[in-house]
Amino acid sequence: xxxxxxxxxxxxxxxxxxxxSATIGIxxxxxxxxxxxxxxxxxxxxxxxxxELHNLNELTDRNSYDQCVFSGAQKLADAKPNxxxxxxxxTAGTRYxxxxxxCASNGHKVKVCVLENGGSGCDCPEGTQVQPPTQKQVNNxxxxxxxxxxxxxSAVYAGSILFSFVVSRALM
Length: 172
Hints:
Immunoglobulin-like; 4-stranded mixed beta sheet; 4 helices
């Protein structure tokens, strides 16, 4: 019984968490003429894509971003066209990305402000604030990978049904 309850809790949290996630497409060729800033929500996913010969690095902190310092950076992609590098945003905070080839000369970098529910905006005195299109917005009641995304009111009802099923299967 204890493991069934634990299983249900994890499943319910994962289902409710996905109710507001989006995949945000970032045209990584665009910041070659200056920094971009993007606001995203916890749980969203970034998809960087580009046609030019950029590399993609995640920088460690704001100073590295400001000064284009790549020591300690995590390389996410080599310098070549790329149809999509996926970056998950599981926690709130600010994330920094840049191309080491033209960061200092052209300001080729992206700041992503990952906001908690209800947060808005991304302060961007260094560049251009952008609202990239979301490639897939998931709303309550949508089907995602075959799993129903529940609203908070239906989650309790569906959760009790699922819990009953899990408990009955565990006791068999």
